[in-house]
Amino acid sequence: MQRCIRALASLAFAGAAVLGASTGVAQSAERFQGILTVVWGDPPPGMAGGEERFTLTLPNGTAYPLAIAPASQNTALHFNGKRVVVSGEAFRNGAGAEAIHVLRIAPDVSGTVAPSPPATAAKPTLFLLLRYKDDSQEPHDPQFYLDLTNPKTPPKGSLIPATLNGFFSKTSWNQLQWQADVGGVGGLKHTDWLTLPFGKTHYANCGSSQACADINAIAADGLALAVTAGINPANYSAINFVLNNDLDCCSWGGSFIYNGTVFHGTWEAPWGQETALYAHELGHALGLPHSGWAYYSYDSPWDVMSMGTPVKPTKCGSYSSANNGGKMETIYCSAPGDGYIAPHKDYLGWIPAANQVVLSAPATKNVTLEANSWPLTTAVKLVKICLAGQDCSGAHAHYLTVEARLHKKSYEKGEPGDGVLVQDFQSDRGAIGGGCFFNNQSGWVVPIDATPGDYDSKNCNSGGRKWPDYALGNAEFAAGQTYNNGTLGVSVQVVKQNASSFDVTVKRTK
Length: 510
Ligand SMILES: [Zn+2]
Description:
Layout: H1 2-12, E1 17-18, E2 30-42, E3 51-57, E4 63-67, H2 73-76, E5 83-92, E6 98-107, E7 121-131, H3 142-149, H4 164-171, E8 176-183, E9 194-195, H5 200-203, H6 215-228, E10 238-243, E11 251-258, E12 261-268, H7 275-285, E13 311-321, E14 327-335, H8 342-347, E15 356-359, E16 363-370, E17 382-386, E18 398-405, E19 419-426, E20 445-447, E21 482-485, E22 490-497, E23 501-508
Parallel strand pairs: 4-6, 7-8, 7-9, 7-10, 10-12, 15-17
Antiparallel strand pairs: 1-6, 2-3, 2-5, 2-11, 3-4, 5-6, 11-12, 13-14, 16-23, 17-18, 18-19, 19-20, 21-22, 22-23
C-alpha cells in the first residue's frame, strides 16, 4: 500500500517524499513554496526534554511552522536548507500561530535552489553576545568565545580543555574550520554584551520542563542589534546566538533564514557554551540529526550527536540560572569524548570515495578498516553495505555502515571501548518512542548492538549492570565476533585488531 502511494506521488513530483501517507492527500490542500529549515532543542546531559521544529519560509519572508507526522520527519530532513514545495492545510497551532499541516513535501525543481553551502572549508562564524533586557549578567568575557573556537589548542592558562577548531580539525580531517568573530556593543570590538529589547519571558516563557523558546524572535532581534552595531550578518555562514541566561528545556541548533539566505545557527544557554555541546549543536547546524535511540533517548556513546561522552570537565564559569530560581550554577567546559559517526561524515561529504568500500551487489570483501579517529590518508574508513531491493542513496535509502573505533586518539577518548561499529542507516526511519524514550527525535542511524538484550526496557534502567556493560555501551563488535543477519543476507566478521585498524570480512549474499 505504501509503495503504491509512493509511486503515485513520484508521478506528481519528481523525487517526492510522501509525508503522512496513510492519510492520503486531501483535495483541499494548498500548495506552498519556500525554503525548509530545521532546528533541534536538546536538554542538558542527564535531563529530559527536547523538540524538533520544521519551518517553511516563503519568498516574501513569511515563516510558517510545519506540522509533520513524526513518522515522516526523518524523510523531510533531507530537504533541510533547500527550496521545497509543500502541499498541506493551514491551521492555528497551540501557540496561536498560523501553521501548515504537511501532507506532502518535495524538492522544488522549478526555482533556483539556494541550499546552505556544503560543509567544507573555513566558515566564518559570529558569536553574538545577547543578554535579556531584565538580566545584566555576562557569563563570560567576549575573548572566551574566540579562545573556545579559533585556535586548535586552548590558549595557555585558559580554563577551556579543548577548542572547536581542535575538534573539527580532527573529526572533519581538516575539511571544516571556523573563523570566529564576537559581536557585541560597538560591533566586533571586545566590549559589552548587546541587550535584547525584551526580557527572558518574552523569548522563553517557561522553565526547564518545556520547549517554548522563540528562537526565531531571538535571531530577528539579535541580528537587528548586530546590524545597528555595524556588523554585517551576510559576512557569516553560521551565527551562534549566545544567551546570558537559560532559554527553556534546551539549547538549540539547526538552520534558519535571514534576508532570504540560509544560515547555520545555534542558540546556547550558558550551560551549553562549551566545546562538547557546541560540537553537538553545530552538528545540527550542519544538518546532522541524532543517532542512537536503540534503548532510550540519546543512548549512543559512540556519537557526539547522541549521548556524547565528554572528558576533562573543567569549571570555567558560573551564572545565576533563571530556570532554577536564580541559583548560581557552575558552568563546565569539557572536551568532546567522541567525534561524528562515519555515516554522518559521509553525509557531510568528508569521506572520499577512495576511502570507502561499497557493497552494491552480493560479494565478499576483506577490508582493513582504519579507526575513525585516525588521520585520513589512504586507508578505508567506511564500509557501506547496500541491501537487496532497497535504495542505497537519497530520501529512502536503507543500508548498513561499518566503521572502526579505537578510543586512544583525541576527541574519541570518552568512548567505552574499541571495536567495529555496525549501524543501520535508514533515511526514512520512523520516529522511535516508547516508555524509556523521553523524546522521539531519533535520526537516520541506529547502532546494531553486539550484545542485545542487556538493558531493562521494562524498568528503563541497566538492570544492575555496570557501565559500559549494558545498552549501547558495549555495542561494538570485538575481534573474534561476527554480526550475522540472515534476513538481510549480511555478515560482518571482525577477524583481527591491529594498532590502528581492524581486519574485517564483510559478506553480502542477497
Ligand atoms: Zn540534538
